[in-house]
Each structure stands twice: as structure tokens, then as C-alpha cells.
Design goal:
The protein has eleven helices and 18 strands. The chain is an alpha/beta fold. The protein folds into two domains: 128 residues, translation initiation factor eif-2b, domain 1 (Four Helix Bundle (Hemerythrin (Met), subunit A), Up-down Bundle); 224 residues, 3-Layer(aba) Sandwich (Rossmann fold), CATH 3.40.50.10470. Strands 8-7-6-9-12-17-18 form a seven-stranded mixed sheet, sandwiched between helices. The chain has a four-stranded mixed sheet with strand order 13-10-11-16, covered by helices on one side. A three-stranded antiparallel sheet has the order 3-4-5, with helices on one face. Helix 2 packs antiparallel against helix 5. The protein is globular, with a radius of gyration of 20 Å. Bound molecules: 5-S-methyl-1-O-phosphono-5-thio-D-ribulose. The site of 5-S-methyl-1-O-phosphono-5-thio-D-ribulose (MRU) has 18 residues, from helix 2 and strand 11. 5-S-methyl-1-O-phosphono-5-thio-D-ribulose binds next to helix 2 and strand 11.
Length: 366
């Protein structure tokens, strides 16, 4: 997507071919800065500290992290260490494990002197495939939006989304937002309600930044406003992304997603989840066992933003001494999900639906 007219991906190989560059998402929306990552530790830190975040981008960054580690040392030990270090960075998005498994499987049987090159190429392939996958999700989602628009000709379609599942969460396009961009670009009248997504405000900071940069009409709302808007018939459908989908269709996504799904069900608002197949955890029977990241309480007790004089400041919003809990994700049961928008089409949110689009995948691990 474009920033000030210049096309960007969220991650790209740096000059010299021994490092990567990423957009520092902790600085958005007020500053657009890029960062060069040239060691395994820097890459792991970027994922952990959410300089890069969003399930597909976490996977893509980890893939390059492994390639960077193998440039330094192509031994089996270095490969296993890079795998472990990167896998430990964030627990919920299964795209991380998916990318690391793919990298390790590709590299493991290559001679040592070919490993660096092979892994670099594979990481680049993961990125290119993610772009194409998201583009296809966008096309299937566009059909859906067109169908909704056809039921009310000439009226604006109102989409509600939570967190950031746009291009900043992927390599390009996004998952939940890819259909939005395509619809907007084809002239379909559309407006997006953007949940601010406390505590880290991925909606207010990142989704709003994306939509604003692309000229998509949108309105940022407090997380608590969604139920009221749905009840007031001001939301036509909800589209969110996900960090992990269990085999039975249960969906882990940013904390607060479940409440939106409940409100959507109570108001007969369709609730769709957009995902690349790399987000399906075929090994997990249900969402009950999806690991939920617990992050530091200061993300709840403190908030940062731009002050009137233009500087960036962090302020405390709770009384000193009040403890805070910060679960990063929740699980929405599949029964609340209207459908999955994937790179192979739209299916029901259950094992049969997933298997209809991805037959033969998800065999048990040896
Ligand atoms: O903690 P984050 O910002 O990495 O969480 C991101 C989300 O929950 C997204 O909705 C999810 O990764 C889908 S990304 C296409």
C-alpha cells in the first residue's frame, strides 16, 4: 500500500542482502519510521515488542529472522536455536510456528554452505505468497461486500472491525481490510467503524492510519460503542482477522473480539473472520487450548499519544498502585462466526467448512 504516494510493504530485504527493514509500528500513527534488523536478537525483539505485529507479519518476520541467523552460522545448532528463540517471542499467533516449521523443513536437508541462500529465498517466498494470499482474501471478501451492497442499492455499507487486520498486520493488503480496500477502489460506497482496541490501540493507531492514508471513510469508536451501533442498525457486517483458528472453527483474536461477536449475534449482524490458511491450527481440536498471551499491566495503566505541542508523551491513567491485568487475546466460539473468508473462498466456521476448502491439509504431526 502507499504512504505519501510511495508503495510500501511492511517488511523488505535491506541493502546489502544481510538484513531486513520494517516499519516501526510502535511509532505510528504520528511518526512513520523504518528500522533495519540485522541480527536474530533484533528480529526477536521486534516481534516481542510489537515493532512488527499481526499474525502474518509475525510469521514473515520470524522467517527472515531465521535466515539472518543462518547467514551468521549455518549449523544445525544455530538453526535449532533460532527456531526456539523466535518461537518464544509471542505465543498466540500460530503463523509464527507455521513459518518457522516451513523454514526449518526447507533448510534442514540442505548442505551448510547453501543454507543461508536457501533460507533467504524461502523467507522472500513466504512474503510474496502472503501478498497473493491476502489479495485473494480481498477478492472473495469483495464479492461478499457487493452482495451486501446489492441488498440496499445506493446506500453505504457499514463495516465494523476490531484491532488491526490490515496491511500493517501482513506483508501487504491485510486480511479483514483487503476486501475494504478493494471495495473502496472499485467505487463501492463504504464506511468502516474502527474499534480503538484498547489497551494498545491497534485500531485507533494503525487501522485508522491505514484507512486515512488510503482515503477510506472511517470513524474511530471506543471499544464499548460497538454494541450500541449494532443495535441501532448502523453496522451491516463485522469483519475481523485472527491469530489462530482451531480445527473446530473457534477463533482467537485481539481481546474484545468475543464481545463484538456476542453483540453481532444478538443483533443479527453477520460476523466474518478473514484468514490465510497459515492461521489454521489443525493440531488443536478446539479453541480452549489456544495459548492466550498475557502482556504487561503497564499497557493498561499507561497510554501514549501526541500532546498539543506535537511531542509524544506517555501518561498514567490509573491510580498508582492499582494492579492491571492484560490478556492480549480472546477466543470466539465458532457458533458465533458467520463464515471464514480465506484465500480459497468463503466457508462455514467449522471443521467441515475448513476441510472443504483445504482438503488433505492438517494431517497430524508425526
Ligand atoms: O497483538 P497484535 O497487534 O499482534 O494482534 C493482532 C491481531 O489480533 C490481529 O487481528 C490478527 O493478528 C489478525 S492480522 C491479519
Amino acid at each position: 500500500m502507499k504512504i505519501n504516494g510511495k508503495p510500501y510493504r511492511t517488511i523488505w530485504p535491506g541493502a546489502g542482502g544481510d538484513a531486513i527493514e520494517v516499519i516501526d509500528q510502535t511509532k505510528l500513527p504520528h511518526r512513520f519510521e523504518t528500522l533495519r534488523l540485522s541480527t536474530l536478537e533484533q528480529t526477536a525483539h521486534a516481534i516481542r515488542s510489537m515493532i512488527v505485529r499481526g499474525a502474518p507479519l509475525i510469521g514473515a518476520t520470524a522467517a527472515y529472522g531465521m535466515a539472518i541467523a543462518l547467514r551468521e552460522n549455518p549449523s544445525d545448532e544455530a538453526l535449532d536455536r533460532a527456531y526456539d528463540v523466535l518461537l518464544r517471542t509471542r505465543p498466540t499467533a500460530v503463523n509464527l510456528r507455521w513459518a518457522l516449521d516451513r523454514m526449518r523443513d526447507t533448510v534442514r536437508n540442505r548442505p551448510r554452505d547453501a543454507r543461508a541462500e536457501t533460507s533467504w529465498r524461502e523467507a522472500a517466498a513466504i512474503c510474496d505468497e502472503d501478498v497473493e494470499t491476502c489479495r485473494r482474501i480481498g477478492e472473495f471478501g469483495l464479492d461478499l461486500l457487493r452482495k451486501v451492497a446489492a441488498t440496499r442499492p445506493g446506500e453505504t455499507v457499514n463495516v465494523l472491525t476490531h484491532c488491526n487486520a490490515g496491511w500493517l498486520a501482513c506483508v501487504d493488503w491485510g486480511t479483514a481490510l483487503a476486501p475494504v480496500y478493494m471495495a473502496h477502489d472499485t467505487g463501492l460506497p463504504l464506511h468502516v467503524w474502527v474499534d480503538e482496541t484498547r489497551p494498545r490501540n491497534q485500531g485507533a493507531s494503525l487501522t485508522a492510519f491505514e484507512l486515512n492514508s488510503h482515503g477510506v471513510p472511517h470513524t474511530v469508536i471506543a471499544d464499548n460503542a460497538g454494541g450500541y451501533l449494532m443495535r441501532s442498525r448502523k453496522v451491516d457486517l463485522v469483519i475481523v482477522g485472527t491469530d489462530r483458528v482451531a480445527r473446530n472453527g473457534d477463533v482467537a483474536n485481539k481481546i474484545g473480539t468475543y464481545l463484538k461477536a456476542l453483540a453481532a449475534r444478538d443483533n443479527d449482524v453477520p460476523f466474518y473472520v478473514a484468514l490465510p490458511s497459515s492461521t489454521i491450527d489443525w493440531l488443536l481440536e478446539s479453541g480452549d487450548r489456544i495459548p492466550i498471551e498475557e502482556r504487561a499491566g503497564d499497557e493498561v495503566t499507561h497510554i501514549s499519544g501526541r500532546t498539543r505541542d506535537g511531542s509524544i508523551a506517555e501518561v498514567e491513567i490509573t491510580p498508582a498502585g492499582s494492579p492491571a491485568a492484560n490478556p492480549g487475546f480472546d477466543v470466539t466460539p465458532s457458533r458465533l462466526v458467520t463464515g471464514f473468508i480465506t484465500e480459497r473462498g468463503i466457508c462455514s466456521a467449522d471443521e467441515a467448512g475448513l476441510r472443504s476448502l483445504f482438503p488433505g491439509t492438517g494431517a497430524r504431526r508425526p
